[in-house]
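CidA/LrgA family protein
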Amino acid sequence: MKRGWILQVLLLIGFLSLGNLVVTLLPIPLPGSTVGMLLLFLFLMTGIIKLEWVEKITSFQLKHLQLLFIPPIVSLIISFHFLEILKWNIFIILFVSSLSCLLGTAYTVEWYEMRKKRECK
């Protein structure tokens, strides 16, 4: 069943609010938006929410995602003198975080493929 734009946006806002509520009630050291996304993922994986119910709005968001990065980039350009002071710290942080993200993704994909092969046998 296809859902309209407004219902899809309301569904995402509902999961954002639910995530914020969970973080408020429980001592979880995560942002409410992250908890909301995890809850949405859980509901999608269990089939409680159908992919078609959020597909239109999420496709729109992914298509326009680069626009969300423009303000932080402009802010970095404006405060470039601050970056010169911390250049090595920022370089090390970027290198370590990028490497850990790359390795985490690689190991996750490898684990998933091994699990998939075992299930097929």
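thats it. The CA atoms of residues 12 and 54 lie 8 Å apart. DSSP finds six helices and no strands in the chain. bye
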